[in-house]
Amino acid sequence: MSQTFKDSVIVTVRSRHNGKSKLRDVPGTSGLRWALHVYLFGLTGKSDHIAAYIQIVGGSVTVKGNLEVYDESFCHEIDDGQQRGCDDLLKNNGIPRYYDNSTFKCTATFEVKSRELPSIEVKNNKLEPVPLHELIYNSRSHRSDAKIVIDTTEIKIHRDFLSMISPVFNTIFGPETKESQIGIVKIADFSVATVQNALDYCYGVDTNVKNATEVIHMLRFYDKYDIQPLITKLEAWLKANMTVKNFAPIAAYAWRWLDSISVTFTTTDNVTSQVRDVPGAPGRKWWISVYPLGITDDKGYVDASVHVAGGGVTMNANIVLSNEFVNGILKGLCHEFKDGGAFKVTLCNNVFVMMAQFTLTVTCNATFHQMGANLVPLMVHEMFQESYQSDAAIAIGEDTIKVHRGFLSMVSPVFKAMFNPETQESQTGIVKITDFSVTTVKNALDYCYGVDVGKKTAVEVVDMLRFYDKYDLQSAIKKLEAWLKANLAVKNFAPIAAYAWQYSRESLQAECGRVFRANSTDLVVNPDFVNLDPVIVSGVLKACLISSEASIPETS
Protein backbone atom coordinates (compact mmCIF):
# COMPACT_ATOMS: atom_id res chain seq x y z
CA MET A 1 0.00 0.00 0.00
CA SER A 2 1.20 3.54 -0.71
CA GLN A 3 0.22 7.03 0.32
CA THR A 4 0.19 10.15 -1.82
CA PHE A 5 0.78 13.71 -0.68
CA LYS A 6 0.54 16.96 -2.62
CA ASP A 7 2.31 20.27 -2.37
CA SER A 8 2.90 23.34 -4.58
CA VAL A 9 5.65 25.90 -4.90
CA ILE A 10 6.31 29.01 -7.03
CA VAL A 11 9.73 30.09 -8.33
CA THR A 12 10.38 33.53 -9.86
CA VAL A 13 13.27 34.07 -12.28
CA ARG A 14 14.84 37.46 -12.96
CA SER A 15 17.30 38.88 -15.49
CA ARG A 16 18.58 35.67 -17.01
CA HIS A 17 19.33 34.13 -13.61
CA ASN A 18 18.26 30.62 -12.63
CA GLY A 19 15.76 30.31 -9.80
CA LYS A 20 15.09 27.82 -7.06
CA SER A 21 12.81 27.48 -4.07
CA LYS A 22 13.90 26.74 -0.53
CA LEU A 23 13.74 23.13 0.61
CA ARG A 24 10.27 22.50 2.07
CA ASP A 25 8.74 19.59 3.96
CA VAL A 26 6.71 17.05 2.02
CA PRO A 27 3.35 17.18 3.89
CA GLY A 28 2.53 14.03 5.86
CA THR A 29 6.07 12.65 5.89
CA SER A 30 8.92 12.78 8.36
CA GLY A 31 12.29 14.01 7.13
CA LEU A 32 11.33 14.18 3.44
CA ARG A 33 11.87 17.59 1.77
CA TRP A 34 11.73 18.93 -1.78
CA ALA A 35 12.59 21.98 -3.87
CA LEU A 36 11.94 23.24 -7.42
CA HIS A 37 14.90 24.38 -9.57
CA VAL A 38 14.42 26.35 -12.82
CA TYR A 39 17.35 26.58 -15.28
CA LEU A 40 16.77 29.19 -18.01
CA PHE A 41 19.49 27.68 -20.20
CA GLY A 42 19.20 24.08 -19.12
CA LEU A 43 21.22 22.23 -16.51
CA THR A 44 24.45 22.78 -18.47
CA GLY A 45 23.80 26.49 -19.02
CA LYS A 46 24.09 26.08 -22.80
CA SER A 47 20.73 24.63 -23.82
CA ASP A 48 18.17 26.44 -25.99
CA HIS A 49 15.38 25.17 -23.69
CA ILE A 50 14.29 26.07 -20.17
CA ALA A 51 14.58 23.11 -17.77
CA ALA A 52 12.71 22.48 -14.50
CA TYR A 53 13.78 19.91 -11.91
CA ILE A 54 12.51 18.67 -8.57
CA GLN A 55 15.12 17.92 -5.92
CA ILE A 56 14.45 15.42 -3.11
CA VAL A 57 16.26 15.28 0.25
CA GLY A 58 15.70 12.75 3.04
CA GLY A 59 14.76 9.60 1.13
CA SER A 60 13.60 8.11 -2.18
CA VAL A 61 10.15 8.81 -3.58
CA THR A 62 8.12 8.73 -6.79
CA VAL A 63 7.19 12.25 -7.86
CA LYS A 64 4.64 13.41 -10.42
CA GLY A 65 5.22 17.04 -11.29
CA ASN A 66 2.91 19.40 -13.17
CA LEU A 67 4.14 22.81 -14.29
CA GLU A 68 1.07 24.99 -14.57
CA VAL A 69 0.62 27.55 -17.38
CA TYR A 70 3.11 25.61 -19.52
CA ASP A 71 1.00 22.41 -19.13
CA GLU A 72 4.04 20.16 -18.84
CA SER A 73 4.08 17.04 -16.65
CA PHE A 74 6.68 14.45 -15.72
CA CYS A 75 7.01 11.45 -13.40
CA HIS A 76 10.28 10.16 -11.93
CA GLU A 77 11.63 7.99 -9.13
CA ILE A 78 14.00 10.41 -7.39
CA ASP A 79 16.65 9.22 -4.92
CA ASP A 80 17.86 11.12 -1.88
CA GLY A 81 19.85 14.22 -2.89
CA GLN A 82 19.08 13.90 -6.61
CA GLN A 83 17.03 16.13 -8.92
CA ARG A 84 15.04 15.11 -11.96
CA GLY A 85 12.41 16.72 -14.12
CA CYS A 86 11.83 18.24 -17.56
CA ASP A 87 14.78 19.20 -19.81
CA ASP A 88 12.76 20.93 -22.54
CA LEU A 89 10.00 22.88 -20.83
CA LEU A 90 9.95 25.50 -23.62
CA LYS A 91 12.27 27.46 -25.89
CA ASN A 92 14.28 30.18 -24.18
CA ASN A 93 14.79 32.48 -27.20
CA GLY A 94 12.49 35.05 -25.56
CA ILE A 95 14.92 35.70 -22.74
CA PRO A 96 15.22 38.31 -21.36
CA ARG A 97 12.14 39.96 -22.88
CA TYR A 98 9.53 37.41 -21.82
CA TYR A 99 11.05 35.60 -18.83
CA ASP A 100 12.27 38.53 -16.73
CA ASN A 101 10.29 38.27 -13.45
CA SER A 102 8.41 35.23 -14.75
CA THR A 103 6.90 32.72 -12.32
CA PHE A 104 6.93 28.94 -12.59
CA LYS A 105 4.39 27.10 -10.44
CA CYS A 106 4.83 23.38 -9.88
CA THR A 107 2.31 21.10 -8.19
CA ALA A 108 3.95 17.86 -7.09
CA THR A 109 2.35 14.58 -6.04
CA PHE A 110 4.57 12.34 -3.91
CA GLU A 111 3.87 8.61 -3.80
CA VAL A 112 5.39 7.07 -0.67
CA LYS A 113 5.13 3.40 0.21
CA SER A 114 3.96 3.07 3.80
CA ARG A 115 6.51 0.42 4.69
CA GLU A 116 9.28 2.75 3.54
CA LEU A 117 8.38 5.65 5.80
CA PRO A 118 10.15 4.37 8.93
CA SER A 119 13.34 3.67 6.96
CA ILE A 120 14.09 7.30 6.06
CA GLU A 121 17.57 7.75 7.50
CA VAL A 122 18.57 10.51 9.86
CA LYS A 123 21.02 12.52 7.75
CA ASN A 124 21.43 15.64 9.82
CA ASN A 125 22.53 14.51 13.29
CA LYS A 126 25.62 16.71 13.54
CA LEU A 127 25.18 19.91 15.53
CA GLU A 128 26.72 22.77 13.58
CA PRO A 129 28.57 25.38 15.68
CA VAL A 130 26.44 28.42 16.44
CA PRO A 131 27.94 31.89 15.82
CA LEU A 132 27.80 34.55 18.52
CA HIS A 133 25.30 36.85 16.82
CA GLU A 134 22.66 34.10 16.86
CA LEU A 135 23.00 33.76 20.63
CA ILE A 136 22.31 37.45 21.20
CA TYR A 137 18.64 38.14 20.57
CA ASN A 138 17.14 41.53 20.08
CA SER A 139 14.35 41.42 22.62
CA ARG A 140 16.55 41.36 25.71
CA SER A 141 18.07 44.13 27.79
CA HIS A 142 21.56 42.69 27.38
CA ARG A 143 21.47 43.29 23.62
CA SER A 144 24.21 45.96 23.96
CA ASP A 145 25.79 48.20 26.56
CA ALA A 146 27.95 50.51 24.45
CA LYS A 147 28.31 51.84 20.93
CA ILE A 148 30.92 52.85 18.40
CA VAL A 149 30.35 56.18 16.67
CA ILE A 150 31.77 56.95 13.21
CA ASP A 151 30.71 60.44 12.16
CA THR A 152 26.92 60.26 12.62
CA THR A 153 26.64 56.47 12.39
CA GLU A 154 26.25 54.38 15.54
CA ILE A 155 27.05 50.66 15.85
CA LYS A 156 25.85 48.87 18.98
CA ILE A 157 28.42 46.66 20.72
CA HIS A 158 29.05 44.68 23.92
CA ARG A 159 31.96 46.04 25.92
CA ASP A 160 32.62 42.74 27.74
CA PHE A 161 32.86 40.79 24.51
CA LEU A 162 35.21 43.27 22.84
CA SER A 163 37.29 43.44 26.04
CA MET A 164 37.68 39.66 25.94
CA ILE A 165 39.06 39.55 22.40
CA SER A 166 41.01 42.82 22.29
CA PRO A 167 43.48 44.15 24.88
CA VAL A 168 43.01 47.61 23.37
CA PHE A 169 39.24 47.57 23.93
CA ASN A 170 39.91 46.06 27.36
CA THR A 171 41.92 49.18 28.20
CA ILE A 172 39.43 51.52 26.55
CA PHE A 173 36.66 50.13 28.78
CA GLY A 174 38.72 50.32 31.98
CA PRO A 175 36.72 51.68 34.96
CA GLU A 176 38.15 55.22 34.88
CA THR A 177 38.11 55.94 31.14
CA LYS A 178 35.82 58.42 29.43
CA GLU A 179 34.64 55.68 27.04
CA SER A 180 33.66 53.43 29.93
CA GLN A 181 31.72 56.18 31.68
CA ILE A 182 29.70 57.31 28.65
CA GLY A 183 29.59 53.99 26.77
CA ILE A 184 30.77 55.57 23.51
CA VAL A 185 33.92 54.84 21.48
CA LYS A 186 34.56 57.38 18.73
CA ILE A 187 36.41 56.14 15.64
CA ALA A 188 37.63 58.62 13.05
CA ASP A 189 40.24 56.62 11.14
CA PHE A 190 38.09 53.89 9.56
CA SER A 191 35.02 54.00 7.35
CA VAL A 192 31.63 52.82 8.58
CA ALA A 193 31.80 49.88 6.16
CA THR A 194 35.17 48.74 7.50
CA VAL A 195 34.12 48.95 11.15
CA GLN A 196 30.81 47.20 10.42
CA ASN A 197 32.53 44.42 8.46
CA ALA A 198 35.21 43.99 11.12
CA LEU A 199 32.70 43.82 13.98
CA ASP A 200 30.28 41.59 12.08
CA TYR A 201 33.12 39.14 11.47
CA CYS A 202 33.94 39.19 15.20
CA TYR A 203 30.29 38.41 15.98
CA GLY A 204 30.18 35.54 13.46
CA VAL A 205 27.95 37.29 10.91
CA ASP A 206 28.46 36.30 7.27
CA THR A 207 29.95 39.56 5.96
CA ASN A 208 29.96 38.52 2.29
CA VAL A 209 33.34 40.26 1.98
CA LYS A 210 35.05 38.93 -1.14
CA ASN A 211 37.86 41.25 -2.23
CA ALA A 212 41.37 41.75 -0.89
CA THR A 213 41.02 45.49 -0.37
CA GLU A 214 38.09 45.07 2.02
CA VAL A 215 39.91 42.31 3.90
CA ILE A 216 43.03 44.49 4.26
CA HIS A 217 40.91 47.33 5.68
CA MET A 218 39.57 44.86 8.25
CA LEU A 219 43.11 43.67 9.01
CA ARG A 220 44.19 47.23 9.74
CA PHE A 221 41.29 47.58 12.15
CA TYR A 222 42.30 44.33 13.87
CA ASP A 223 45.93 45.45 13.94
CA LYS A 224 44.99 48.71 15.66
CA TYR A 225 42.86 46.94 18.26
CA ASP A 226 45.26 43.96 18.57
CA ILE A 227 42.79 41.18 17.77
CA GLN A 228 45.40 38.58 16.88
CA PRO A 229 43.26 35.48 16.09
CA LEU A 230 41.39 37.42 13.41
CA ILE A 231 44.62 38.71 11.91
CA THR A 232 45.81 35.10 11.61
CA LYS A 233 42.54 34.07 9.97
CA LEU A 234 42.40 36.91 7.46
CA GLU A 235 46.07 36.73 6.53
CA ALA A 236 45.50 33.04 5.74
CA TRP A 237 42.58 34.15 3.54
CA LEU A 238 44.87 36.58 1.68
CA LYS A 239 47.39 33.80 1.02
CA ALA A 240 44.71 31.40 -0.22
CA ASN A 241 43.07 33.97 -2.51
CA MET A 242 46.07 35.84 -3.94
CA THR A 243 45.80 36.34 -7.72
CA VAL A 244 47.22 38.62 -10.38
CA LYS A 245 44.21 40.90 -9.94
CA ASN A 246 44.67 41.49 -6.21
CA PHE A 247 48.44 41.01 -5.98
CA ALA A 248 49.30 44.71 -5.52
CA PRO A 249 47.23 45.49 -2.39
CA ILE A 250 48.20 42.19 -0.76
CA ALA A 251 51.89 42.77 -1.49
CA ALA A 252 51.63 46.31 -0.11
CA TYR A 253 50.11 44.90 3.08
CA ALA A 254 52.75 42.15 3.33
CA TRP A 255 55.67 44.59 2.91
CA ARG A 256 54.69 46.92 5.69
CA TRP A 257 57.39 48.34 7.94
CA LEU A 258 57.72 48.53 11.72
CA ASP A 259 59.29 51.17 13.95
CA SER A 260 59.07 52.36 17.55
CA ILE A 261 59.61 55.62 19.44
CA SER A 262 59.67 56.20 23.21
CA VAL A 263 59.69 59.45 25.19
CA THR A 264 60.05 59.85 28.95
CA PHE A 265 58.89 62.71 31.18
CA THR A 266 59.08 63.50 34.89
CA THR A 267 57.28 66.86 34.88
CA THR A 268 54.12 68.29 33.35
CA ASP A 269 56.07 69.96 30.55
CA ASN A 270 55.34 68.92 26.96
CA VAL A 271 57.96 66.63 25.41
CA THR A 272 58.79 65.69 21.79
CA SER A 273 60.77 62.71 20.54
CA GLN A 274 63.60 62.72 18.04
CA VAL A 275 62.64 62.69 14.38
CA ARG A 276 63.03 59.29 12.71
CA ASP A 277 62.92 58.03 9.13
CA VAL A 278 59.80 56.10 8.15
CA PRO A 279 61.18 52.65 7.19
CA GLY A 280 60.56 51.66 3.59
CA ALA A 281 59.40 55.17 2.62
CA PRO A 282 62.35 57.34 1.50
CA GLY A 283 62.04 61.04 2.39
CA ARG A 284 59.29 60.53 4.97
CA LYS A 285 59.88 61.34 8.66
CA TRP A 286 57.89 60.73 11.83
CA TRP A 287 57.94 61.66 15.53
CA ILE A 288 55.63 61.94 18.52
CA SER A 289 54.79 64.66 21.05
CA VAL A 290 53.30 64.15 24.52
CA TYR A 291 51.21 66.75 26.41
CA PRO A 292 50.90 65.73 30.11
CA LEU A 293 48.29 68.44 30.71
CA GLY A 294 46.58 67.97 27.37
CA ILE A 295 46.40 69.97 24.18
CA THR A 296 44.37 73.20 24.36
CA ASP A 297 40.89 71.66 24.22
CA ASP A 298 41.64 68.62 26.42
CA LYS A 299 43.12 70.09 29.61
CA GLY A 300 41.89 67.19 31.73
CA TYR A 301 43.70 64.46 29.79
CA VAL A 302 47.16 63.31 28.79
CA ASP A 303 47.38 63.67 25.01
CA ALA A 304 49.85 62.43 22.42
CA SER A 305 50.17 63.44 18.79
CA VAL A 306 51.86 61.48 16.02
CA HIS A 307 53.48 63.52 13.25
CA VAL A 308 54.47 62.56 9.68
CA ALA A 309 56.31 64.77 7.19
CA GLY A 310 57.62 64.40 3.66
CA GLY A 311 54.68 62.62 2.02
CA GLY A 312 51.77 60.27 2.52
CA VAL A 313 51.82 57.03 4.50
CA THR A 314 49.30 54.86 6.35
CA MET A 315 50.11 54.05 9.97
CA ASN A 316 48.74 51.52 12.43
CA ALA A 317 50.08 52.08 15.94
CA ASN A 318 49.67 51.22 19.59
CA ILE A 319 50.62 53.95 22.09
CA VAL A 320 51.44 52.77 25.61
CA LEU A 321 51.75 54.93 28.74
CA SER A 322 53.56 53.04 31.52
CA ASN A 323 56.03 52.96 34.38
CA GLU A 324 56.76 50.73 37.35
CA PHE A 325 53.36 51.56 38.89
CA VAL A 326 51.16 52.04 35.79
CA ASN A 327 50.90 48.82 33.84
CA GLY A 328 50.34 49.80 30.25
CA ILE A 329 47.54 52.26 29.53
CA LEU A 330 47.17 51.51 25.83
CA LYS A 331 45.47 53.27 22.91
CA GLY A 332 45.48 52.39 19.24
CA LEU A 333 45.31 54.41 16.07
CA CYS A 334 45.06 53.81 12.35
CA HIS A 335 45.39 56.87 10.16
CA GLU A 336 46.18 57.72 6.55
CA PHE A 337 48.54 60.70 6.43
CA LYS A 338 47.82 61.79 2.86
CA ASP A 339 50.49 64.48 2.76
CA GLY A 340 52.01 64.46 6.21
CA GLY A 341 50.35 66.11 9.20
CA ALA A 342 49.53 65.13 12.78
CA PHE A 343 47.02 62.88 14.52
CA LYS A 344 46.00 63.32 18.17
CA VAL A 345 45.34 60.48 20.63
CA THR A 346 43.93 61.02 24.14
CA LEU A 347 45.66 58.59 26.51
CA CYS A 348 44.09 58.96 29.96
CA ASN A 349 42.91 61.31 32.70
CA ASN A 350 45.84 63.42 33.90
CA VAL A 351 44.93 63.51 37.61
CA PHE A 352 47.57 60.96 38.54
CA VAL A 353 50.12 62.79 36.33
CA MET A 354 49.59 66.00 38.31
CA MET A 355 50.23 64.10 41.54
CA ALA A 356 53.07 61.93 40.23
CA GLN A 357 56.63 62.25 41.44
CA PHE A 358 57.95 59.48 39.24
CA THR A 359 58.93 58.85 35.62
CA LEU A 360 56.38 58.04 32.89
CA THR A 361 57.18 56.61 29.47
CA VAL A 362 55.11 56.86 26.30
CA THR A 363 55.97 54.32 23.60
CA CYS A 364 54.53 54.34 20.08
CA ASN A 365 54.87 51.03 18.21
CA ALA A 366 54.01 51.79 14.57
CA THR A 367 53.35 49.76 11.45
CA PHE A 368 53.66 51.66 8.17
CA HIS A 369 51.99 50.80 4.86
CA GLN A 370 52.51 52.24 1.39
CA MET A 371 49.82 53.82 -0.08
CA GLY A 372 36.86 36.13 -4.41
CA ALA A 373 35.98 33.63 -1.86
CA ASN A 374 33.72 34.50 1.11
CA LEU A 375 35.13 34.91 4.61
CA VAL A 376 33.85 32.11 6.79
CA PRO A 377 32.31 33.59 9.96
CA LEU A 378 34.44 33.16 13.08
CA MET A 379 33.28 31.32 16.16
CA VAL A 380 33.60 32.87 19.62
CA HIS A 381 36.23 30.40 20.86
CA GLU A 382 38.55 31.29 17.95
CA MET A 383 38.84 34.90 19.10
CA PHE A 384 39.90 34.46 22.71
CA GLN A 385 43.56 35.17 23.28
CA GLU A 386 45.53 33.24 25.88
CA SER A 387 45.82 36.21 28.21
CA TYR A 388 42.02 36.58 28.23
CA GLN A 389 41.12 32.91 28.58
CA SER A 390 38.66 33.13 31.47
CA ASP A 391 37.57 35.13 34.49
CA ALA A 392 35.14 32.66 36.09
CA ALA A 393 34.46 28.94 36.39
CA ILE A 394 31.51 26.56 36.58
CA ALA A 395 31.90 23.86 39.22
CA ILE A 396 30.14 20.49 38.83
CA GLY A 397 31.17 18.33 41.76
CA GLU A 398 34.97 18.13 41.64
CA ASP A 399 35.14 19.23 38.00
CA THR A 400 35.45 22.82 36.80
CA ILE A 401 34.90 24.43 33.40
CA LYS A 402 36.48 27.82 32.73
CA VAL A 403 34.13 30.49 31.32
CA HIS A 404 33.94 34.20 30.54
CA ARG A 405 31.37 35.99 32.65
CA GLY A 406 31.03 38.82 30.11
CA PHE A 407 30.20 36.41 27.28
CA LEU A 408 27.71 34.36 29.31
CA SER A 409 26.07 37.58 30.52
CA MET A 410 25.54 38.62 26.90
CA VAL A 411 23.76 35.44 25.85
CA SER A 412 21.89 34.57 29.06
CA PRO A 413 19.88 36.93 31.31
CA VAL A 414 20.18 34.33 34.09
CA PHE A 415 23.98 34.38 34.01
CA LYS A 416 23.83 38.17 33.72
CA ALA A 417 21.92 38.31 37.00
CA MET A 418 24.33 35.82 38.61
CA PHE A 419 27.32 37.99 37.75
CA ASN A 420 25.87 41.23 39.13
CA PRO A 421 28.42 42.94 41.42
CA GLU A 422 26.74 42.02 44.72
CA THR A 423 26.22 38.29 44.10
CA GLN A 424 28.29 35.49 45.59
CA GLU A 425 29.07 34.19 42.10
CA SER A 426 30.41 37.57 41.03
CA GLN A 427 32.63 37.88 44.09
CA THR A 428 34.04 34.34 43.96
CA GLY A 429 33.96 33.86 40.19
CA ILE A 430 32.44 30.39 40.70
CA VAL A 431 29.00 29.13 39.63
CA LYS A 432 28.03 25.81 41.23
CA ILE A 433 25.81 23.49 39.19
CA THR A 434 24.37 20.33 40.75
CA ASP A 435 21.49 19.43 38.43
CA PHE A 436 23.41 18.69 35.22
CA SER A 437 26.27 16.33 34.42
CA VAL A 438 29.73 17.56 33.44
CA THR A 439 29.17 16.21 29.93
CA THR A 440 25.90 18.11 29.48
CA VAL A 441 27.35 21.41 30.73
CA LYS A 442 30.48 20.96 28.60
CA ASN A 443 28.40 20.18 25.48
CA ALA A 444 26.07 23.13 26.11
CA LEU A 445 28.89 25.62 26.70
CA ASP A 446 31.02 24.35 23.80
CA TYR A 447 28.03 24.79 21.49
CA CYS A 448 27.56 28.38 22.70
CA TYR A 449 31.24 29.10 22.15
CA GLY A 450 31.01 27.76 18.59
CA VAL A 451 33.13 24.66 19.22
CA ASP A 452 32.37 21.75 16.88
CA VAL A 453 30.62 19.30 19.22
CA GLY A 454 30.26 16.65 16.49
CA LYS A 455 27.36 14.22 16.18
CA LYS A 456 24.95 14.04 19.09
CA THR A 457 22.11 11.73 20.02
CA ALA A 458 18.64 13.04 20.73
CA VAL A 459 19.13 12.29 24.45
CA GLU A 460 22.28 14.45 24.53
CA VAL A 461 20.56 17.28 22.66
CA VAL A 462 17.55 17.17 25.00
CA ASP A 463 19.91 17.38 28.00
CA MET A 464 21.50 20.47 26.42
CA LEU A 465 18.04 21.97 25.84
CA ARG A 466 17.16 21.54 29.51
CA PHE A 467 20.34 23.45 30.39
CA TYR A 468 19.44 26.23 27.93
CA ASP A 469 15.90 26.39 29.29
CA LYS A 470 17.14 26.86 32.86
CA TYR A 471 19.56 29.61 31.84
CA ASP A 472 17.19 31.16 29.25
CA LEU A 473 19.38 30.89 26.12
CA GLN A 474 16.50 31.29 23.67
CA SER A 475 18.49 31.32 20.43
CA ALA A 476 20.24 28.06 21.31
CA ILE A 477 16.85 26.55 22.17
CA LYS A 478 15.46 27.48 18.73
CA LYS A 479 18.49 25.96 17.01
CA LEU A 480 18.36 22.67 18.89
CA GLU A 481 14.59 22.28 18.68
CA ALA A 482 14.89 22.68 14.90
CA TRP A 483 17.51 19.90 15.03
CA LEU A 484 15.09 17.66 16.96
CA LYS A 485 12.36 18.21 14.35
CA ALA A 486 14.73 17.47 11.47
CA ASN A 487 16.04 14.28 13.11
CA LEU A 488 12.86 12.89 14.68
CA ALA A 489 12.61 9.14 13.95
CA VAL A 490 11.35 5.89 15.51
CA LYS A 491 14.55 5.16 17.43
CA ASN A 492 14.69 8.57 19.16
CA PHE A 493 10.97 9.31 19.32
CA ALA A 494 10.52 8.75 23.07
CA PRO A 495 13.05 11.27 24.49
CA ILE A 496 12.00 13.93 21.97
CA ALA A 497 8.29 13.44 22.71
CA ALA A 498 9.00 13.57 26.45
CA TYR A 499 10.79 16.90 25.99
CA ALA A 500 8.05 18.30 23.72
CA TRP A 501 5.30 17.66 26.28
CA GLN A 502 7.31 18.48 29.40
CA TYR A 503 8.19 21.92 28.00
CA SER A 504 4.94 22.48 26.03
CA ARG A 505 6.62 22.88 22.63
CA GLU A 506 3.57 22.92 20.34
CA SER A 507 5.49 22.86 17.06
CA LEU A 508 7.52 19.85 18.18
CA GLN A 509 4.36 18.16 19.50
CA ALA A 510 2.74 18.54 16.07
CA GLU A 511 5.81 16.99 14.43
CA CYS A 512 5.61 14.07 16.87
CA GLY A 513 2.00 13.57 15.80
CA ARG A 514 2.96 13.47 12.11
CA VAL A 515 5.82 11.03 12.71
CA PHE A 516 3.62 8.79 14.86
CA ARG A 517 0.97 8.71 12.12
CA ALA A 518 3.55 7.60 9.56
CA ASN A 519 5.24 5.08 11.89
CA SER A 520 2.53 3.94 14.30
CA THR A 521 3.07 0.22 13.60
CA ASP A 522 6.66 0.40 14.79
CA LEU A 523 6.12 2.85 17.64
CA VAL A 524 3.31 0.99 19.42
CA VAL A 525 5.71 -1.95 20.01
CA ASN A 526 8.71 0.24 20.85
CA PRO A 527 9.57 -0.24 24.57
CA ASP A 528 10.73 3.36 25.01
CA PHE A 529 7.44 4.68 23.66
CA VAL A 530 5.31 2.21 25.64
CA ASN A 531 7.06 3.24 28.88
CA LEU A 532 6.42 6.96 28.39
CA ASP A 533 4.19 8.80 30.85
CA PRO A 534 0.54 8.07 29.92
CA VAL A 535 -0.10 11.83 29.66
CA ILE A 536 2.58 12.07 26.97
CA VAL A 537 1.27 9.01 25.11
CA SER A 538 -2.23 10.50 25.16
CA GLY A 539 -0.84 13.79 23.85
CA VAL A 540 0.95 12.01 21.00
CA LEU A 541 -2.26 10.23 19.98
CA LYS A 542 -4.19 13.52 19.98
CA ALA A 543 -1.47 15.17 17.89
CA CYS A 544 -1.64 12.23 15.48
CA LEU A 545 -5.41 12.67 15.15
CA ILE A 546 -5.02 16.41 14.45
CA SER A 547 -2.37 15.63 11.85
CA SER A 548 -4.64 13.08 10.18
CA GLU A 549 -7.52 15.55 9.97
CA ALA A 550 -5.27 18.22 8.47
CA SER A 551 -3.94 16.01 5.68
CA ILE A 552 -6.02 12.96 4.82
CA PRO A 553 -3.97 10.93 2.28
CA GLU A 554 -5.36 9.24 -0.79
CA THR A 555 -4.91 5.45 -0.72
CA SER A 556 -4.11 3.44 -3.83
Question: Would you give an account of this structure?
Answer:
- With 556 residues, the protein is α+β, with helices and mostly antiparallel strands.
- It folds into four domains: 2-119, Apoptosis, Tumor Necrosis Factor Receptor Associated Protein 2, Chain A (Sandwich), CATH 2.60.210; 132-254, Potassium Channel Kv1.1, Chain A (2-Layer Sandwich), CATH 3.30.710.10; 258-368, Apoptosis, Tumor Necrosis Factor Receptor Associated Protein 2, Chain A (Sandwich); 489-556, no CATH class.
- The chain is 32% helix and 29% strand.
- The chain is built from 19 helices and 25 strands.
- Strands 7-6-9-1-25 form a five-stranded antiparallel beta sheet, with no helix packed on it. Strands 2, 3, 4, 5 and 8 form a five-stranded antiparallel beta sheet that branches.
- The longest helix has 18 residues, at 506-523.
- The chain is flat.
- The model is unreliable at 115-123 and 552-556 (pLDDT under 50).
